[in-house]
Amino acid sequence: MIKTKLTIVCPDNLSEIVMAQKKIWSNILMLFISHLAETNRASFDLPNAKVESVAGYNVEYAWDEDLIVHYLYKPMS
């Protein structure tokens, strides 16, 4: 979180970092997102989801081509 603040503020001196932290809502948002990521909660645990094995974001659809080719060429042979 410190690196994020430094990236956002790009300070020339340390007092600018202190002044940037007065915006409490951005700090709360960053803290909340980092806690979600650390505890593997919503939207950060997609690879470990139970639904992923059936309908996840990285389901492989390569069998479609094999199935089409199988049914197209089988009657010809």
TrEMBL record:
<dbReference type="GO" id="GO:0009060">
    <property type="term" value="P:aerobic respiration"/>
</dbReference>
<dbReference type="GO" id="GO:0003954">
    <property type="term" value="F:NADH dehydrogenase activity"/>
</dbReference>
<keyword id="KW-1133">Transmembrane helix</keyword>
<dbReference type="Pfam" id="PF00146">
    <property type="entry name" value="NADHdh"/>
</dbReference>
<keyword id="KW-0472">Membrane</keyword>
<protein>
    <submittedName>
        <fullName>Uncharacterized protein</fullName>
    </submittedName>
</protein>
<dbReference type="GO" id="GO:0005886">
    <property type="term" value="C:plasma membrane"/>
</dbReference>
<keyword id="KW-0520">NAD</keyword>
<dbReference type="InterPro" id="IPR001694">
    <property type="entry name" value="NADH_UbQ_OxRdtase_su1/FPO"/>
</dbReference>
<comment type="similarity">
    <text>Belongs to the complex I subunit 1 family.</text>
</comment>
<keyword id="KW-0812">Transmembrane</keyword>
